[in-house]
Amino acid sequence: MKPTVVLALSFLLPLLAFFTNIPLAFSDDVEQVVDIYGNPIYPGFSYYIIPALRGPGGGGLKLAQTGNSECSLTILQDYSEVFRGLPVQFTIPGISPGIIFTGTELEIEFVEKPWCAKSSKWSLFIDVSIGKACLGIGGAEGHPGQSTYDGKFHIKKYIFGYKLVFCLDATKACLDIGRFDAKNGEEGRRLNTTQDEAFDIVFVPAFKADKVIKSVA
């Protein structure tokens, strides 16, 4: 077995052990997911993901180069609360257009992707240099020497807004999406699977984002 595979498994197995203790059925009441204006969010529309509480918690999402990558493929949250970030779109696999409820199985991708990326679809990769499972784009080709895992996301109600939950395609095991301060000069917080506090978020329609950012600046 290759050393990189052994390292990846050493980081993944504890996650899977935790995953298996989580009920597959969500106990929360199912309800339609809404944006900050109270309007339902829909597949194919563009949204910014920002913190539920504005201020020191930072701003929207962006892509950055990490490790030995020559392309911006790792998902980070910017430190600046006035940064709206990159817009995303949601897809319900096999269904179009569909309605997004809490617990609906989703794929997430950025509206635009770097020229050097094969895809803007979100996935999980094991960053062996820091020992964490982080979110990125670009598939296996974009993360050479590191293990990548496909999966689906769910949106669930959280403290002040919502949280994202990632479920592995292979096992259907799930874990919350959190964030942590990045290393090596990275300007932002990486998104990662976590057993601790989840990232409390809301959704802003892309065409109304300028108004929202200006009103809180």
Automatic annotation (TrEMBL):
The organism sits in which domain of life? Eukaryota
| GO molecular function annotation | serine-type endopeptidase inhibitor activity
Q: Which residues form a coiled coil?
A: none
This protein's UniProt keywords: Disulfide bond, Protease inhibitor, Serine protease inhibitor, Signal
What range does the record give for the signal peptide? Answer: 1-27
Q: Which PANTHER family match?
A: KUNITZ FAMILY TRYPSIN AND PROTEASE INHIBITOR PROTEIN (PTHR33107:SF21), KUNITZ TRYPSIN INHIBITOR 2 (PTHR33107)
Protein name per the record: Kunitz-type trypsin inhibitor-like 2 protein
Q: Which organism is it from?
A: Vigna radiata var. radiata (Mung bean)
Gene that this sequence comes from: LOC106766644
